[in-house]
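Workshop exercise sheet. Pairs work together: one partner reads the sequence aloud, the other fills in the structure field after running the prediction. Swap roles for the next sheet.
Pair: D.N. / O.F.
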Amino acid sequence: MKKTVKDININSKKVIIRCDFNVPIKDGKITDDTRIVKSLPTIKYCLEHNAKLILMSHLGRVKTEEDKTKNDLSVVATRLSELLEKHVTFVNATRGEELEEAISNMKDKDIVLIQNTRYEDLEGKKESGCDMELAKYWASLGEVFVNDAFGTLHRAHASNVGISTYLPSCVGLLVEQELNALSYLFNPDRPFIIILGGAKVSDKIGLIENLLPKCDKILIGGGMAFTFLKAEGYNIGNSLLDEEALSFCKKILKENEDKIILPVDVVCNDEYIDTKGTIKDITELTDNDMGLDIGPNTVNIFKNNLASAKTIMWNGPLGVYEFKNYVKGTNDVLTYLTEINAKTVLGGGDIVAAASACNVEDKLYHISTGGGATLEYLEGKELKGLKNIPEK
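Structure field:
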């Protein structure tokens, strides 16, 4: 296990914490503060040890000056102050005199949040390209580095891999919790069932190949189900098709026909629009039909398979969850998981947002804050953001 913030001396030191404040913002307001809330245990632990906190995070992608305006982290500073009931100093800069002065004036338990690290991407992708000169500068601002941004652990950025090259480093409490919970899936209590949704099969090939031998069943919904159904010979109409993954689906279905459960009915529309759909058996789809959610019979089949599960991992919604007419399949299964005796891990990304909207996130074993990082870890890949963190 990697060293955590509890294994390193941070008393009265300037501690740089790489957080994941990459939260959804609409009309200047945060629509889901889950990632900010998840960062609080590490921040509070450091405050209890009189550390001076220098917080860093990216927000969105920054390719133009307009992107800087819409991805300004000041709104996060305001929300963080509210959650901590403590003033957070926001510095509208990623380097320079204003930032250096704010940090040099810090007292124990002060908090400074630096502007979006990806502002440095505007000229030469210095952040996301892991520019080591920038990393060395940021490292010079602190004495200890804590990587608590699980969502970016699969990326080599100046603000994670870069800084950890120059400072004594460890992971935060959130990253520790994530790694422990996800590692459990490599040796889970059985039956172990995986639920996969989302759009493209090709995004999940590594995950399927790595976890298929370890699980008892895979229940497949969402847009990706239609590529599997096409591989089975069904007419999927205008439903989403991941053409490049068709041969993979055929191979996996042939080798694991007893493990893979596909939809038997879907909710269709004749265009991609949030209006009431029609429930059809998968044998009844016409060329104009577009499947946008799993149907009630499929929900029941999924429930029957999940009833005896001891461990469940779920990645990706089962329908177009951002459309109110096509959330029922996802919500029905999410609600059912709160009623059975299984450890359920939601594997990051859109399914976490769906769980939040369905108000079930507090009733499940673990909600991963990562998207790509979660998938890469479960695929068995080494996470770049951990490479400079020493073992305990």
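Discussion prompt: The two ends are 6 Å apart (CA to CA). What would you look at next?
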